[in-house]
Amino acid sequence: MTILTPNSPTAELQALDAAHHMHPFTHGAGLRGKGARVITRAEGCWLTDSDGNRILDGMAGLWCVNIGYGREELAEAAARQMRELPFYNTFFQTTHVPAINLAARLAELAPGDLNHVFFAGSGSEANDTNLRLVRTYWHEKGQPERQVVISRWNAYHGSSVGSGSLGGMKGMHAQGGMPIPGIAHIDQPDWWSAGGDQSPEDFGLAMAKQLEDKILEIGPDKVAAFIAEPVQGAGGVIVPPETYWPEISRIVKEYGILLIADEVICGFGRTGNWFGSQTMGITPDIMTIAKGLSSGYQPIGGSILSGEVARVISDTEFNHGYTYSGHPVACAVALENLRILDEEGIVTRVREDTGPYLKNKFESLADHPLVGEAKIVGMMGSIALTPEKAARAPFAAEAGTVGLITRERCFANNLVMRHVGDRMIISPPLVISKEEIDILIERAWESLDEAHAQLERDGLM
Ligand code: PMP
After folding, report:
1. Which CATH class is domain 72-343?
2. What family classification does the UniProt entry report for this protein (predicted)?
3. According to a count of CB atoms within 10 Å of the terminal CB, is the N or C end of the chain lower?
4. What is the ipTM of this complex?
């Protein structure tokens, strides 16, 4: 069989891809008709495809390449570790140096007394761990009836059966028997779409109040935990009104339930602090981490537990773990990634310099006739597309139609911007420069102009 290379012709790569490769979250037949875009190389914030196009990656891969592409140090760390100890497990009372160092470093970086790490291979696995962890915690505390985890509609917490059930994506729930029992959902604090006549502040309180209502409906002695992202990412980069998190924090405290902050996207500098919990003023009992932990260079995730949760769990044998929990190569790469984020001042730069610069430019997109609101925290932002700003009106076409048209225009202009329904999203590498931010905004504006013209031509607005 011929092994193709990055220099093979695009048509050949696409044909072999279509013949054997099943893509995640993709309509297979639809993709086969047009052929996948083949990315062959990347450097900094720029991707190269098999036709030689240079594309500005406004999404940092899948919200993960925080330090940018092409860092030799991470390749070196991986090679070094592969030579020294390519694999050993952390089951059965063994450990190894990379897992020891990474857990200790994470305990140092994480806020408050979050100081123990249970490693996983991904964010999905880590949230599966969390589901079992919180139920085991309450069992050990003598309250085994505390089983229910409350989450939010439209949340994304992963794609395995457990984490997909924790998430609130109805399209996912419709396939394969999700959600599993013991999970309940409340609404997301999306003022733009659902706030009606309420002020954002009142709406934030009302959405938080849903948590209290749900706890009372289920019975406070049956609820184990609430899970949420500090800023919801894949649900549309929903920045909550300022009243939301303080009220949620009050409620979880009042009813004594555990708070799980899913930091898979928000963690490792994305919001201008090491963790989104710090930006939003939250004190979680457990944090889910993945993505930016290794800047996507290796698959790794985990759960960071508070001293108290770790102590209770340690009183029993937790019958849970993955072959790749604390994989030595992934840990070594993550540790090197954290060193770079820290020593190069990347998180501070996002908070104090490039983040504010991007915010200023990004918010100016709200002046475009197609854009309602533009919201951004650190380096995760979204714009709401609308035919009528003042009314915050949705398009008549099926939700997502206009978002998809706009995404295609961005792609044609060599900018990766994702759409969630009719919101457009950015989450660039944290190392993006001011010059590159200017290019991103220029291309976004141009793509919006083109989408606008197309919508008018097609009678969609
Ligand atoms: N939680 C959040 C908030 C995520 O955004 C994601 C992935 N997009 C996950 C969990 C799942 O992570 P993974 O894809 O690594 O399993």
Report:
1. alpha beta
2. Belongs to the class-III pyridoxal-phosphate-dependent aminotransferase family.
3. N
4. 0.99
